[in-house]
Specification:
The structure holds 2 protein chains of 2 kinds. By secondary structure, chain A is an all-alpha fold. Chain A contains 12 helices and 1 strand, in the order H-H-E-H-H-H-H-H-H-H-H-H-H. The radius of gyration of chain A is 19 Å and the shape is globular. Chain B is mostly helical. Classes of the chains: A mainly alpha, B mainly alpha.
Chain lengths: 314, 708
Amino acid sequence: MNWLIAILQTTLFVVLAPLLAGWLKMCKCRLQNRKAPSLFQPYRDLLKLTHKQPVVSEQASWLFITAPYLIFSATVLAASVVPLIAVNLPTSASADVIVMVGFFAFARFFLALAGLDIGTAFGGMGSSREMTISSLAEPAMLMAIFTLTMTASTTNLSGAIAHVLNEGLILRPSFVFALFALILVAIAETGRIPVDNPATHLELTMIHEAMILEYSGRHLALIEWASQLKLMLYGVLIANIFFPWGIAETFGAKDLGYGLLAILGKLALLAIFLAIAETLVAKMRLFRVQEYLSFAYLLGLLGMLSHIILEASR
Amino acid sequence: MILLSAYCAVLLSFASGLLALMMHQRQTLSAVSEYGFNTFFTGNVHCRSWINKNLEERHFPVFLRQAVFVLLGLSGVFAVIAGLAVLLGKGVITDQIALGLPWLPWHIRFDGLSGFFFLIIGIAVCAVSLYGPGYVSSYKENEHPFAALGLFTGLFVTGMLLVLLADDAFMFMIAWELMSVASYFLVAFQHENSANRRAAFLYLLMAEVGALSIILGFGVLASFSTGFTFDALREANLSSTWASIAFVLALLGFGMKAGIVPVHVWLPEAHPVAPSHISALMSGVMLKVALYGLIRFCFDLLGDVQWQWGVVLLILGTVSALGGILYALMQPNLKRLLAYSSVENIGIIFMVLGLSMIFMANGHPQLAALGFLAALFHAFNHALFKNLLFLGAGIIHHQTHELNIDMMGGLIKKMPQTSALFLVGCMSISSLPLFNGFVSEWLAFQTALQVDVLDNGVLRSLIPVAAAALALTAALAAACFVKVFGLIFLGQARSRNSEKAHEVRDKGMLAGPALLAGLCFFIGIFPGVIIHLINNVSGQLLGHTLPNDSALGWLWLAPVSAEQASYSPPLVLIGALIAAGVCYWYLRRSPLTIMRRADTWDCGFGGLTPRMQYTSSSFTMPFRRIFAKTWIIDEQIKKDLQGAMDQDVAAVHYQLHIQDHSWPRLYQPIAQGVNNLARQVGRIQTGNIRTYLGYSFATLVLLLWVIS
């Protein structure tokens, strides 16, 4: 039964990810005085891509063709670890938050290799930039997460969320720092403005798009879907770690329903904030990203120190 | 029985060295066999014809090479058997051999810790001896004699195994020196190149300075005890100051061998110039022997560890890990890059060992056991994947005659098997889930996150920062090995050599790395196997095992408690297979969407050339800019101008030199100091015989005065 709910939750994660992307696009268009595409446009795009014949470069090796499957399944596995509508599910015990970061690293490793496989300057550029940004973002992210795991004294995400739920509403300075650090990292890792622009195809600025320039058809669909999933995953992390109220602690149908509604509401709200931020802020230069990310790291460190100095039991 | 197989391992490796000396004794051998068959085994015709065939001039070198490596491989097998047996038996075996000083026979002790390192050496030696015959066949006999290579390889392995068996300081140092000196000759094997001679000398110099430091460390211990056996040294009762002095001496000595920043400089010089299978042994195994020495010295001989030592190890380890990977990232030479990456991995091991010491000294022996486990597990993993990568580098060098990764590219199509094996190595070393490198890193993070139990506020804030540095190291390692794999195997060939490369024909050269790659994956999925073994070691050495021993099933990994953290690689693997399988099946079912091959998109300009691809220096350019202070960067761009008013750029020359800070900051001042001192001493050398007689007279008087 528990396993069934876990699989259901993962499926829900995968299915809902394009919806979040659609909603985000809708909010952004409204804010920028444009006419928005339908909420379900991302689904249509994915469906269209899966029905097209993929065109692959003659240079491409087996790695290029297998990479989308690996990237997608690594991201799905990462999603299976994160509690979406309920805590204490068995999948979240099979891997903790460090493993989740490991899954992201796995996906990124193959994405970067796929970028290099074709042997064009674009691919190499994208890979190089992606690895740079992620190697700065990863410590910042772990710092923020360690603050949480030390408070809850578990690295199990589900356990940590349950801990926050049981503690009730306490304003912890460390959590505030960690929240901001995680938001900054999430923006960098999911390739949003101001770090990367998902809508651009201008070679000087693109990072993620440069790596996947050669992909088409179902391969592109998988990669696009994986990046939508990643966006949603970070959203759920922020929403459920710092504002876990509403998530189901027992597996009754009613609780699960409320859990689903709660997370949908939280994500919708987060997407609105993200859309506002993306509308207000301009993309920054590549070599400003390090300052941005070291600021995120600093916030994470401050969170950790304030946990150790102010909050720890001793 | 266990000890017998350990002795067999030592003797067989020694015998393989001696057998290599027979390379030029073909005539003698055939005379001996002739004599033997005529007198003793007159009837055995098949055997005789087989031996005679192998003793023919044409077959003999090949036969001998194979025989040497078979002996070496058998030595590895025996080492694995002995190591496993002692680890599973949980016993301690002691023995004495009537060698060595008259009043101090060689004391032998074979316990869990030695057994574990025997296992590491055994696996590595097995892989190397599968790989060796194919690799050395490309050396020309008159330029690079196999006799020397085989002899010193055998002695090197013998030395390493003896270090692990030693139970007195005297035998330990003899074995240690055997290992160092034999490996010096291996580094200097291709001595026609002056850079190689220089690297070998640097190695020898640092190895000897390190050995002196270790001797002094033993000396400090011995002066408080009754003898030189380890049993006597264990009983030594040191004040904490003297214990710390001994610790610092040992750390300097073993750290020099292990390649800790800032005494790592020999490593990136010596490892690239040795033959690849030797670099694999040096980087994968010899560094581990140094680690063994440190663990034996601190945890076993000194006994009561102090938390300050742990802090020293933690800081040195963090600096080495970060420094090592940042230097590795900048290297275009593949083997140099791998050598720097060894510095990084040794740094990670030292870091976790430091954590273990801190927990131990603060009265949390079970967490200390966790840190110890993470350190030894990472040592084991590093031996596997670094060996794999060095052997892979050897294959690439063998096939393309290049070591500069800017000259490679596109090898994945020409060398499919090598590339798959190398990919496994890259994924393990980048600590990606499902591979062994990830498990040890996960354990390291778990150790660091237990910091809440400590009382000291400084430690509580220092350790999470170290953990974040570990995260940065891991991410940079991933970037580094994306660069390595991407530039060597993917894209288009950047030189004629790599364009003409093809898969290696010798099956053994692939079998060695395949063995290691298989183990990397197997242990990544079932880490419980090794953790169980290490738990026995820590039970023996620290007196404590993991807090949650029962949770170490084959399926789950939950070192502290199931509520705190758990990881189940088999379940993750199943999940990954399901997810990938479903989307693969779903997306490929329609025949209308069969892949079509087309030209690469070239922005409509036409003519993509290999020169347009990213190179090592362009891939790492963002890192170079962000971490600019870490290196001494000398970047020169020269433009050839032509045309009226020098307006057109005909060609651009780009030069990039990246240097380690430790040379100008640490070594050159020392070298200068030594030179100055020598000049001062030189003043008393007047060249005048009367003055020298005067010195002799004065010394004589002084000595007489001292004696009387």
